[in-house]
Give the backbone structure.
Amino acid sequence: MPEPRTPILALASLARALCTRPAAMPAGWRDGAALDHAHFVARMDAWASLLEGRQGRHFALYLDDSIEFGAALLGAWQAGKTIWLTADTLPASCASLAASVNGFLGQFPAAYAPLSAPAEVSGVRQWTVLDDDFAALVVHTSGSTGVAQAIPKKLSQLGSEIATLEQLFGARAGGAAVVATVTHQHIYGLLFKVLWPLCASRAVHAFSVDFPEPLAALLAQGPCVLAASPAHLKRLPDYLDWSGARSQLRAVFSSGGPLALDSALAAQRLLGCMPCEIYGSSETGGVAWRQRMADRPEDDSWQAFPGVQWRLLDDDGALAVRSAHLADDGWLALADRARQTAEGHFQLLGRSDRIVKIEEKRISLSAIEAALLATPLVAEARVLLCDAPAGERQKVAAFIVCSAAGRALLEAQGKLALNRQLQLALSGQVEAVALPRRWRYLDHMPINAQGKTTQSLLLALLDKPRLPQAQLLECAAEGEAPRLLLELRVPATLFYFDGHFTGAPLLPGVVQVEWALHFARLHLALPARFRAMHALKFQQPVLPERPVRLLLEYDAAKASLHFRYLSDAGQHASGRIDFHPDVIAVPGGDSSLPFQP
């Protein structure tokens, strides 16, 4: 039997309307503790009081807690402030915001002096109805295909989206509680986890759920809907007990990218609901939706939202849309290509903006990905064009999640062998200048809080550190034998762990030798020319995030450097490096081994 539904509230008068709801009416839960509307209204009042009269119109807001975030957002609007959203509080994101906003609210780094609302406020507030043209938000595109762009949103645009969601899915959701694996700091989570539930009187669980074990338990607690992403849904483990979820879930939503048919079917089997997928963007708002059918697996078309018009602009099938979710009533051309499949339905064909030029040749990055996925060695693939120094040709980088066959080849023959196999598979389909020159083999694609794999996350994998974090513990001279003791912490993101080995990362022995020489040269005057290595032993592996001590002893008379890697587990490696004693290098110089790992 469906849960009772309360008439949806208009966003412009939401703050005032919330004050008329029963004080004991549930607003949601925080760590299992119930919070009522009296609490929510008090927090809304506190944020409004904090910001009233404060100089500046634009404020950045970041809070993990969706209930507190909703109160802060509505309170800021009552104070006439425009809120800027960011997906994270990384240094680059904060620096970008600092150039555009007058202040920071919530959980930003202390350097930005973020403001927080007081615990209590006194007095009775007169809540106002906002104008539909009120400049409510500035959101950012996800950055999955490039640099994130700031997109302003009027209140009317957000209100239009909420009304559309209620029209399409309100009957399914009823009065069920909202659980999410995505953050409200992005437009999808903002609508599904904060604004739509507030307008429709649905209680929410304050924190996003990151792992499947607590998700399975939470979904079993009572009638609920789930707002998730393809990245989360395709990783639901079938060994967990999802029977409670199957009995309580009323709807499952997914956005952030298309959900593969096998993942959709697996989610339906585990959760008891076929996910409703939402197609849209920060700029366009919601555009279309679909719900796959097990008996019609070939039908992957999308149906436009009510009130959304779409058309194809040219022979290439570029998609354009027009709706009340946009800033004006004009047509907006998208980077997605499509073809019409039925009246009001279209099939997506990939992005037109993934055509790049290398050496004056037009190259489709999507085509390279498709060719990689066609091999039996690849389960997932993303390719990007890397920036190159002046005068050098741009290179394509490939990021690969291997299939079982690919993992077997990687573990048996190494990264170079797998590189060659994939380059060979591409050679008949891809221009030689577009063959990937940089390869990264991953256990899974990196995702952000929205469950998206962004370009910045992938490019960061190309800049992995090549040296450990080092602390000099001891620097002593015993006669003619200077002695160094350092503590090294080897980060899991280290460059040398790529492909060595998938699922069981080990620090290569050749890297351990190179590090011994590197740190010895930083502190000691060693001869410049390498002569030989002796007595190399590797007793046990050096693992990521495990501290090890590096002991270096130099015998100047013999021009010989002895090294040992030690930890509480015992000795990991040892050896001796001999030099030609004719020329002494200055401490801090470059290494001179005949190889570079």
Remarks:
- DSSP finds 15 helices and 29 strands in the chain.
- The radius of gyration is 29 Å.
